[in-house]
Amino acid sequence: MNVETPTAKLTPNDYASDQELRWCPGCGDYAIIKGVHKALADLQLPLEKTVFISGIGCAARFPYYMATYGFHTIHGRAPAIATGTKLANPELDIWVVMGDGDCLSIGGNHTLHAIRRNVDLQLLMFNNEIYGLTKGQYSPTSKVGTRSPSTPQGSIDSPVNACVFALGAGARFVARTVDTNLKHLPEVLKAAHAHKGASFVEILQNCIVYNDGVFNDVTDKAVAADRQIMVEHGKPLVFGKDGKKGLRLKPGLFELEVVTIGENGVTEKDILVHDQKNKILATMLASMEDAPFPVAMGVLYCNPAEISYEAAVWKQNAEIAAKAGEVDLNKMLRRGNTWTAT
Amino acid sequence: MATKLAESERSEPRRRSLDSVVIRFAGDSGDGMQLTGTQFTQITALMGNDIATFPDFPAEIRAPAGTTFGVSAFQINFASYDIMTPGDAPDVLVAMNPAALKVHLKDVPKGGTVVCNAGAFNERNLQKAGYKANPLEDNTLSDYRVIAVDMSKLTLKAVEPLGLNQRDGLRCKNVWALGLMLWMYGRDREPAVKWIRGRFTKEPKIAEANIAALNAGHAYGETAELSGSMAAFEVPKAKSVPGVYRAVTGTEAIAWGLVVGAKKAGLKLFLGSYPITPASALLHTLANLKPYGVTTFQAEDEISAVCSAIGASYAGQLGITSSSGPGVALKTEALGLAFATELPLIVVNNQRGGPSTGLPTKTEQSDLYQAVFGRNADTPLPVVATCTAGDCFYTAIEAVRLAVKYMTPVILLTDGYLANAAEPWLIPNVDDIPDFPVKFRTDPEGFHPYLRDEKTLARNWAIPGTPGLMHRIGGIEKDYDTGHISYEADNHHRMTKVRAEKVANIANDIPLQTVAHGAERGKLAVVGWGSTFGAINQAVRRSREKGLDVSHIHIRHIFPLPKNLGQMLKGYDKVLVPEMNNGQLVTLLRATYLVNAESMTQISGQPYKVSDLEEAIRTRVEK
């Protein structure tokens, strides 16, 4: 095998394939792929060791636009295929790209198990709360009342909160970011990459054709400061234009409340400090959806396990192999009772 | 122990020599009949007899005790000559309770021997089995030679010095029965003792109790009680090709064949599997072969099982998934992906009775349509089928060879009967099996992922991690010349054709069809596939001995079929296709060759009886 030592530093563009992007003009995916290119370039990840694996959907075209290895598979199954690939070669750096239907509907079971096994994968879920590629049906993350071709009178079933689902499945890394926040998104991806184990990242992504503006009440510049809280480990959970709003535990209760520093006797000391190893806090942060609560962005939870799944499998296999010593197929066939006919 | 055995040898009764014997052990599913049968098999194989076995157990793990639907049975045929089936009818039925007698007596020919545990024939058990009167006391068994012994009581007496409670003591009664049968057919006890000690290493008291029960059963036969009218027997060794042998089940042979195949290809083996009866045993077997470069992954479902295997193949291992018909149905979409991305993959289908849940513990060969046709779009896959427990080894290696040489998923069909059946197996020397090493692409010059080998049409295999060969594959149609996404009409036509041609060309790389027994022309060809091999072969042999003009053709390569098969079938006046399904291979043959093949079906969850096949042959040839 001819090993090439990269001499020049890889730029974000070096991670883009020669294929023309074919998402709808204005799709949030354009911003996301830009953020991904930047994160990979920041980390200088070797192209040949990086693999993007996707299912089916708009988001799933992602691998074709990357200059790395890529596998565009079938609807919902990307985490399962990625699990096999990672088990077969743990040295590969695997990114799984999924849409909300892909990840939480048809592939919900695989997402659950990839997470609870803690396979060292970056699981990126592009959440646009709609089925785009099939022309606009409501998805498992659509808000109640979503009108779509399949729910002309409005959807009835409750949506799933992706980050809460991931935490419930036992994720050791859960983060959330927004497609167009190109300062934040690469940093979140880099944190996900740094975490050894299953890293779940929800990326709020605008579908300009079928669900345009669905996140406006959270992402619009005019409201973003009040409707998003950028969480950081060890920093107080404050938000708002002037940074005076904060989260604290409601006195005497086990629930969050939004308070303003300087009002009603609230001081900075009352504000909770983010602890990314605190799963209960992470779950409360992940659960915040409606105003006056902000939507939590950043690394909500990061509490690495001692060993990731594929590493544990290889370790166990190696231990068994070491115990068995040198093996011989002819001996394998002759283990146990044999007899000789003459 | 040694002294005791020596004594028993001294008091060896005169034994009547028999060519072959069929014994059926039957009892409650909690009575340990499978273990008893397996032990008798191991010992008999070690003594040099040819053997064939048929375990037959209910779907319930522990059906209510004493009921007819909870009866579990194990049949063994052993002989001094080459045998091919577990036997049509038992010469001896060991019935551990009334329900076992009720279910199985009808299969015992008149004059056969029935050994009953009289201790279990109490009012409650008789009622549960649906007997109004005790069959041991009325004339139900008047046409049989009956040995009715209170095994329960004698077992308890034997284990008494060990101070076991009644429940644990009674659990040794199957071993008591084993001891009796070992005496009756002059088998060694030593291997059974060794096995018991191995099994209960952590419970020495239980081990000693079982050994005491085994010895007591044996001694019961030896002491006067059974001599006289019930003479003891012997079955001399079978003549076999010289070499080292072992007893092997189809599951073991497939596992070993896959491991050896992967080694021959120079790949590590990855099994993604989800528990399903009767396929789980392959997962269990491979899970114990990790030192041989094996990784096993119990997936969250059938889809993940196949997908993880595809992911492993993508990364450069040999991906394997195993299941049974319903599970394979769930894998179907992923098989299309593996076919479209042209990755090697082995799908082991351990067929069982269907449709749906059907008869999960019974055997059937009704997934041929599924294997050959059961996918959306034009998705032909090579299909190979195993025919005996030992053959599973070689067919598994062949499946691996085809998968890696042609970069395609391969379906390996076996069935519940073969998976569990044991037979003596001449152990091959692995070094005599040719290597077929995989060469991964490493040269970036002129590379694209769908570049094909001119001869095999297989695409080149470049795995992630290889510098300079970064590329994307997927289920979307790709351009023939560049491998990029393509929706071009002509290109799709061309790609569909080349994928089909690649698989069809395998016909040039497999052995020509031969006649398993008989002549290449004649009045009747009986064409079979899969586990009916033994029964058909024996029926054809017997028919030919009687002067009937009949031949046996056994098909291993179901798709593509051997290229001379069509011509060969034309050499017979009639073609009969017996199958344990409602007529599937027969459709394939008729459709492929326009041959007037006649279907013969048996869909009872039981293997064919040789006598039924003989009768079918007779009526077709004599007409």
Biggest sheet of chain B, strands in spatial order?
11-10-12-13-15-14-20
Q: Radius of gyration of chain A from the CA trace?
A: 23 Å
Quickly count the helices of chain B: 21
- How much of the sequence lies in strands of chain A comes to 15-25%
* Biggest interface, chains and residue tallies: A-B, 60 and 70 residues
Name the assembly state: heterodimer
Question: What is the strand tally of chain B?
Answer: 22
Number of helices of chain A: 11
Radius of gyration of chain B (CA) equals 27 Å
Beta-strand percent range of chain B: 15-25%
Largest sheet of chain B: 7 strands, mixed
Q: Whole-number average pLDDT of chain B?
A: 94
Topology order of chain A in helix (H) and strand (E) letters: HEEHEHHEEEHEHEHHEEEEHEHHE
Main β sheet profile of chain A: 8 strands, mixed
* Percent of residues in helices of chain A: 25-40%
Report the average pLDDT across residues of chain A. Answer: 96
The coarse silhouette of chain A is globular
Tell me what the structure shows:
The complex is a heterodimer of chains A (342) and B (623). Chain A has 11 helices and 14 strands. With 342 residues, chain A is of the alpha/beta class. In chain A, a hairpin with a 6-residue loop joins strand 11 (245-249) and strand 12 (256-260). In chain A, helix 1 packs across helix 6 (184-194) and helix 3 (100-106) crosses helix 4 (108-117). The mean pLDDT of chain A is 96. By secondary structure, chain B is α/β, with parallel strands linked by helices. Chain B has a 7-stranded mixed beta sheet, sandwiched between helices. A 6-stranded mixed beta sheet of chain B has the order 3-4-2-5-6-7, with helices on both faces. A 4-stranded parallel beta sheet of chain B has the order 19-18-21-22, with helices on both faces. In chain B, helix 20 (585-593) links the parallel strand 21 and strand 22. In chain B, helix 2 runs parallel beside helix 7 (173-184). Chain B is globular, with a radius of gyration of 27 Å. At the A-B interface, strand 2, helix 2, helix 4, helix 10 and helix 11 of A face helix 2, strand 9, helix 10, helix 12 and helix 13 of B.
